Structures are given as structure tokens and as C-alpha cells.
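Section 4.2 – Deliverable D4.2 (structural model, holo form)

The reporting period included a commitment to supply a predicted holo structure for the target in complex with nicotinamide-adenine-dinucleotide. Inputs used:
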Amino acid sequence: MIKGKMYINGQWVDSRSGKEREIINPYDQSVIASVAEGGREDAAAAIEAARTAFDSGEWTSTPASERGRLVFKLAELIERDREELARLESLDTGKTVEESRWDMDDISGIFRYFAGLADKDGGEVIASPVPNTTSYVVREPVGVCGQISPWNYPLLQASWKMAPALAAGNTIVMKPSEITPLTAIKVTELAEEAGFPKGVVNLVLGPGAEVGAELSESVDVDLISFTGGIATGKTIMRSAAGNVKKVALELGGKNPNIVFDDADFDLAVDYALNAVFFHAGQICSAGARLMVQDGIHDRFVEALKARMEKIVMGSGFEEKTEMGPLISAEHLAKVESYMPVAEEEGAKIILGGRRPAEAPLKDGFFFEPTLITECENKMKIVQEEVFGPVITVERFHTEEEAVTWANDTIYGLSAGFWTRDPDRIERVSKALKFGTVWVNDFNVYFVQAPWGGYKQSGFGRELGQIGLEEYTEVKHVYRNHATEAVNWFGATGG
Ligand code: NAD
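Output (C-alpha cells):
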């Protein structure tokens, strides 16, 4: 059995209350680990350590190239332990090891990218409009960063936050989801091995309502970066108001995937699957909201259904498995609860819509790949983030209708569309109100380009140059080389 502790001020510690949490394998509900279950007082200790490390100035005055070297070393250690990390991630989440290996390759690449950016900011000289003065802009680290991540891509989402924060010279308190902490623990061990100074990297484990709340409320935290659900995001935003800390929110999505009549049919079918079924649809950018133009709608649904019937569910550790379980019993119940709602609203479940009845799948949190047709824009099943292996299909007639429907959502994370018409590509890319728009593709991201949402999918951007800038303050320095008396106030007597 794996044991896990928290990492506070350079020490591996149990929770102050002595509580532990069992970590469950979603494939068969077996207990795979027991980890420290922190509370508010543990989070407060981690914040204090990060505060002291930041305020001492040792880390912030470390040359940016040296900070970059440490972040790069961490990237190399992640690459060295790629297989172990991938297996831990799959054990914890149920996703296939192959998917987890991709994640680990992305993650080492993310640390490497931000390591490279660490010493590239040369500041900016402003052409001062005032004679005999100089004016320049420098970027400085923000301070203590609270980082709260979700369970669906545990280490990937954590790395989007850790790598830029450390490269920019901040100190961090990372809080992974309480149900998937294993890879965050392992990567913190690697950060220790890389040699980050004491207090720069801290890890706290435990429930969001305590540990996460302490991070978002504390006056000693300067920035909170959160990835997770909308309701939690709103709570964090309110808590952060206490000391007006900087906030970055990466929230959910309900992402349209629009297929026009003139699309490459076979590719669009293939990618309609790729858009959703990684990690059993538990992806913030899942193209779970499929919209197909009426000329090809029926043929498209048939072709999609035929492929979905063949999706192989099973253990993420078996090579033939294409889709693992959902993360937890609660989440499985939530996904399942949408099925009667969809039917009451008039949609038709033409495939799946239930838990598999046979062993061994019935012992895990599995839900069958589900295809729901005759959906309409206003339906709950279309508007809400189901976060499971569920595709809803809407039939549309015109481009205008497709764009209007697609934009009619509180979310704005990502969208994709399929067409061969170059003019339509221009028009629709411009009209869609989403942080990422894919044209003839879906679910592609890379560290060089920014990621984030419009509307209630959040604000702030991760990845890319802008992802580093989120972790900096901008300071303007103005120097007068020939200061002269002004004599405005009180100089001439009453
Ligand atoms: P969640 O909001 O339940 O939890 C996310 C994190 O917040 C966890 O670490 C949790 O412990 C913590 N938390 C819970 N309550 C808290 C509180 N009151 N104060 C502070 N922290 C608290 O989300 P989840 O179920 O873990 O993740 C799924 C959600 O994440 C989905 O909505 C998904 O779309 C979203 N997500 C978004 C992106 C993106 O890039 N936009 C990426 C991955 C996941």
C-alpha cells in the first residue's frame, strides 16, 4: 500500500490531526493508498513556510537562469520517472496507461518550456516623454501562490501552475484534488531531489472546503490559481476578495463540435470520438456537444454509433482497453442522473445510458459510451457539463443557426468545427466566443499557446508566454536625472 505525506517547509509531515484518507482505485474500488488528510492548520503552516521563503528574498534574488535550471532539472527527473508517474496516474484515475504516458511527456515538456522562459524577460524601456528621465518596466514575482487542481488530469493541471510560478520566482502551496493526490506527491519528491530551497515548494493534501478554503481566504496568499468546477470557482473568487488577491480560474466547459455538410465525413466521425472519449469524457474541453448539419446528420449518427459500440472498456493497465471508469461513485451517480432528465426533455438515448451489468466492469465506476440524439439547444443535457462518456447530438440547418446555438451557453472554454470552405472557416472562427477554437481538429493543446476560457469558463490564461506573465507583477520605474524644484505648494507664502 502506498503511503503519502504532505511537504511543508522542506519536511514530509503527517496532518496535525493525524487523520488519513484512503485512496480508491476507480477500476475495482480497491484501496491503493493512504495519505495524510490535512486541514486548515496544515494549510496555514504551508502558507507560512511559503511566505517566509518568499519574504526572505533568497529565492526571489536567485538569478532567473538558476531558477530556470532547477525547473529544467525537475523536467528531467519527471522524464526519468515517466513510467512510474504514468502508472501512478492510471492507478489513481483509471485512465489508460497510454493516455497517462502522453500526459507525462506533456508535463516534462511544460516544465522544460517554462524553464527556458525563466530568464528571457529583458524588461522594457519606455521612451519617457519627460526630458532627463528614464522609464522602464520590470516584471517581478507575485509572491505566495496557492494552487488548487482537479482530479481529471491531476499532474497535468498541477504542472500548468507549478512550472510557470516557480520559473517566475514565486513560492507555492500546491493542493491537488483529495481523491487523486498520488502524482502530486511523487512530483514534490522530485522537486525536493531537484534542490528547490526550503519553503519554495509546499504540498498540502485534504478536502477543498478546508485546505482549499484556507488557501483562498488567507491574507498571506498573494495569488490563487484554481482549476475545477464553476461552483467552487465562484466560492474561491468570493474568498479571494478578502485581501484582493490575484485570481486565475480555469473552470468547466460544454464544448460544441460542429460538423458542416461539406466536412471530410470520415475524419469528422473519427474526431467526434477523440473529442470525447479520452479519460471517459472527463475532460474540460470534451466536444460532448455535437452539432451536425441536416444533410449528413442521419448518416453521421449511424457511423458514430457503429464506432462507439466497439469502444473497449476495462482496466487502464490492459493494452486493449480504450476507455476506463469514471473517477468515483459520486461522479458515476451524477452522470447517470442526467439520463432520465434527457429523456424527460424529449431526447433519445440510442446507445449506452447505463452502467455495464457484467463483471468485472460492474465492480468499478464504469458508464457505457452514450449517444443521445434529438437534442435541442435549451435542454439541460446539452447545456450542463455532464463530464462523462456522453455525446449529445443537435441537428442544425444553417451556419447562422449553428453559430448562434453554439454561443448560447454560459461556458466559453473551447469549440471546434469541420468544413472545407475557407470563407466559412474565417467567418465561424471569428463568430465563436470561446478561448480555443479548433478548425478541422479537436482537443489539441500545446504549451506554446495560451489556454483558458471566455465567459463562465473562467479568466486568466495558462501556458504560453502569457501563462508565465500571470505569475508576475508589473512594475514601472521612473527616474529623474535632473530634478528641479516645482514650488507649487506653500513656496510663495500666504
Ligand atoms: P472541484 O471544483 O470539485 O474541485 C477542484 C479542486 O478544488 C479540488 O482540489 C477540490 O478539493 C478543491 N475545492 C473544492 N471545494 C473548495 C473550496 N470551497 N475552496 C477551495 N478549494 C476547493 O472540481 P473537480 O470535480 O475536481 O474537477 C472537475 C471540474 O474541473 C470540471 O468542471 C472540469 O471542467 C474542470 N476542469 C477545467 C479545466 C480547464 O482547463 N478549464 C481543466 C480540468 C478540469
